[in-house]
């Protein structure tokens, strides 16, 4: 019998009440999204290999917002995958992570007390742990968008995951994580320039990373220096995240979606923001057109200037804002 297309209603822990794409198969429904190339969501059921089983449900009402309900994580990650698919499609006409119309799949409930999430090119899939006590899952929207964006980077510039290119790879995932979050702007998770603010990975309510002033995490760098290539890629991403914040919102104090930021510049000169959609479009064009596997910070500057020239005109106000934002993190000034 032909499978029927349905839209299930879900309640995630982080996304709140949402619609998710589901497919009826016989007398049950599956977390298979017919609007997005049958993008699938699996329950690993604490295993660490294979796909486990597809999430299924008998009445197409999924999760209850609590981590104790296994479907709740499925709702969050299925929504995250859908939102990320939509972001790249709506913004850039990108048809899936590899732009080939093929959907990646998601795996929730990986292992026990696993405090991470990750993307793998080998399976073309992303995987999510349940976090500390199996009750703090790493399934928020920005985490999903971050992981899937690793797939986009791998399929495009291919930035090597070490040294300065590794920092740019990580920053690319944080940049599109923020862009996806603003694009959705869910009541339960409005757009912000933090990474992982919902998952409470530190146990004290603080986010994993701060794009306006990355050093607030105690380890990330705010500005480029010659030591950058020798540190963990999740910290050498800091200056590029800071560049992206400055380009989007500008320097100095600013309130966005009710959140107060105050972003400094390395050179003390002001930067005028161009808005997150323009900043992300410049980064996307730079990533997909000009960056290569070995692009470093200086190369990222020239890549974004070329992208800005293409999209907005050489020496346009937007192009000049890109140059100012790089100067604001000690690149090219
Ligand atoms: N969650 C981490 C990340 O996406 C996994 C890793 O270290 N690659 O960056
Ligand atoms: Zn990452």
UniProtKB/TrEMBL annotation:
<comment type="similarity">
    <text>Belongs to the peptidase M4 family.</text>
</comment>
<protein>
    <submittedName>
        <fullName>M4 family metallopeptidase</fullName>
    </submittedName>
</protein>
């Amino acid at each position: 019998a032909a499978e029927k297309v349905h839209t299930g209603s879900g309640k995630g822990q982080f996304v709140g009440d949402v619609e998710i794409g589901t497919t009826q198969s016989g007398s049950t429904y599956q977390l298979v999204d017919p609007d997005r190339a049958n993008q699938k969501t699996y329950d690993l059921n604490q295993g660490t290999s294979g796909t486990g089983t597809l999430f299924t449900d008998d009445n197409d009402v999924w999760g209850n917002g609590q981590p104790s309900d296994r479907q709740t994580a499925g709702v969050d990650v299925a929504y995250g995958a859908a939102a990320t698919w939509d972001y790249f499609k709506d913004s850039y006409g990108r048809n899936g992570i590899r732009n080939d119309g093929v959907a990646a799949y998601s795996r929730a409930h990986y292992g026990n007390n696993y405090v991470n999430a990750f993307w793998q090119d080998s399976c073309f899939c992303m995987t999510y742990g349940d976090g500390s006590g199996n009750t703090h899952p790493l399934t928020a929207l920005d985490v999903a968008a971050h992981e899937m964006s690793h797939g986009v980077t791998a399929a495009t510039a291919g930035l090597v995951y070490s040294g300065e290119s590794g920092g740019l790879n990580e920053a690319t995932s944080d940049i599109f994580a923020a862009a996806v979050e603003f694009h959705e702007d869910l009541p339960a998770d409005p757009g912000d320039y933090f990474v992982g603010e919902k998952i409470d990975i530190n146990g004290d309510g603080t986010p994993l990373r701060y794009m306006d002033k990355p050093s607030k995490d105690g380890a990330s760098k705010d500005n480029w220096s010659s030591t950058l290539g020798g540190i963990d890629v999740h910290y050498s991403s800091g200056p590029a995240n800071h560049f992206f914040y400055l380009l989007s919102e500008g320097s100095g104090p600013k309130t966005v979606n009710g959140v107060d930021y105050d972003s400094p510049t390395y050179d003390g000169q002001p930067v005028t923001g161009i808005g997150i959609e323009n900043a992300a479009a410049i980064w996307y064009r730079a990533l997909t057109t000009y960056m290569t596997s070995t692009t470093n910070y200086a190369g990222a500057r020239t890549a974004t200037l070329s992208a800005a020239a293409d999209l907005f005109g050489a020496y346009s106000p937007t192009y000049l804002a890109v140059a100012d934002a790089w100067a604001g993190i000690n690149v090219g000034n």
